[in-house]
Design goal:
The protein is mainly α and 248 residues long. It folds into 2 domains: 101 residues, no CATH class; 79 residues, no CATH class. The protein contains 7 helices and no strands. Helix 1 crosses helix 2, helix 4 runs antiparallel to helix 5 and helix 4 runs parallel beside helix 6. The longest helix has 47 residues. The chain starts with 11 loop residues before the first helix and ends in a 26-residue tail after the last helix. The C terminus is likely disordered.
Amino acid sequence: MAPPKPQVKVPKAYLELLMEFWLYAWKVIYPARDFSQQEQEKAIVAIMAGVYDGFGQQRTPREWAEFQTRQLEKLDKAAKWYDLHPDAYRPDPFAIQVKGKGYFDKENLRGFRGLEAWMKKDEERRQLNRHAYDEARQEKQKRAETLLRRARRDFEKLRLGAKPRKEVAAMNTQMALFQYYRVVFDGFGKKWADKFYAQYLDQQAVDFKPPKYYRSRKSRRLAGEISEETVVYVESWMQHGDWYYSEV
C-alpha cells in the first residue's frame, strides 16, 4: 500500500523528511505490521508533532539534514534493541486508547523521545572510554620510551664493563640481555618490539658505543676527539678601540 500524504499541509521539503522517517520506521520498527491508510495517516500526524515538533523550529537545510540523520539513527538504535529482544512489546506508532501513549507521541517519554537521552548517555560513556583509552595509550608510550632508553644504556654499560643496574645484573652477556628485553618489548606489541630490534641493531653496528653527546668530555678528550682547552686572558686595554673585530 502506498503511504498517504498527511492531511496537514507542510512544505514539500518537510514532507520528504516526514515520509522518509515514517517509511524507515515502518521498515525497522514494524516490519511485520500492516497499516491501513487511516492508520498511516495517524502515525504520520503523531510523528510530525512528536518528532518534528510540527516543523516549527527554524533550521537551515544543512541543520535539517543533520537533524534527520539523528532521528534515523534513533530508529536504528531502537531497531537493534528490538532485534535483541524479539518478544518485547512494540507500542503502536500513535495512541490507541490513552492519549499520548503512542510510540511517537510527544508526551511519551518512554517511547521514541526517550531515545535521545539514551543516545547521549551512550555517547558520554564512549567519550569516557575513549579518554581512558587515550590515557592508557599515552602511559604505555611513555613507559615504552623509558624502557628503550634504559635498554640502550644497559647495553652500553655491558659493553664498557660498567656496573649494571640491579634489575639486569644477572644478564651478564649480550645475548642474555637481549633475550630479557625481547620478552619485555614483546609484551608491548609488535610496534614497540620492532623499535627495540631496530635500536639493538643500530647499537650493534657501532659495537654498543654510546653516542658522542652521551660521553663525558674527559673520555672524549682522552680519545683525541676534542683538544685541550685553551684559556685566553683578556686585558682591559683589549676591550677598547676597533681592532680586528670592528666592522670595515
